[in-house]
Design goal:
5 helices, 10 strands, 2-oxoacid_DH_actylTfrase, single chain, Fatty alcohol acetyltransferase, globular, dihydrolipoyllysine-residue acetyltransferase activity, 26% strand, 6-stranded mixed beta sheet, Chloramphenicol Acetyltransferase, 224 residues
Amino acid sequence: MRATIAKRLSAAKQTIPHYQLTATVNVEKTMAMRKTVNEKLEAEKAGVKVSMNDFIVKAVAAACKRVPTVNSHWMDSFIRQFANVDVSVAVATPSGLITPILFNCDSRGIIDLSTNMKELAAKAREGKLQPNEFMGGTVTVSNLGMYGITMFNAIINPPQSLILACGGLQELVIPDKEDPRGFRSAKFVTFTASADHRVIDGAVGAQWMKAFKENMEDPANMIL
């Protein structure tokens, strides 16, 4: 697997004109929604909990529906744009990195995506994924926040045109006129999108990042 990863990533860095877009996003409303959803699931004894990564995947899919150019493959002689958003999610395994796919994320709920992701991650770590479960996808999410990483740049997974790198949770001080001190602390995450300039112009990439940021800052946007 290491040889395959090395070959694909070397080719991607050498042939794809990468550029990066970074945004530091207030995720307090998404964290609050996650807490509410998990409390409801616990009360119902559903046996499942949703993660921040599940909300990130949904926010990515919703942003791709708003800026569909991003949801495309570079096919050398043409660009193929997809109607459905299939999100590849990077999973670390003993053999190396693999990206199982959550299909049709734009039309699925958070709980459904969360359950499916847990199943795929378990299969990935056991080496039981079938090719159709990890070959394909229209956009990728890579999250290293659990390792204490603040931000990083990820390499595009060809023929996809965008990969989103997710850093860890940070507590930052922001102005607040309603607080007697004039400021308060808030929870933020830094996200960096690497985009293929052959498919996604800078302004289009910025529009996508803006849509993603709006989704994470107000998760109601994901279902509108």
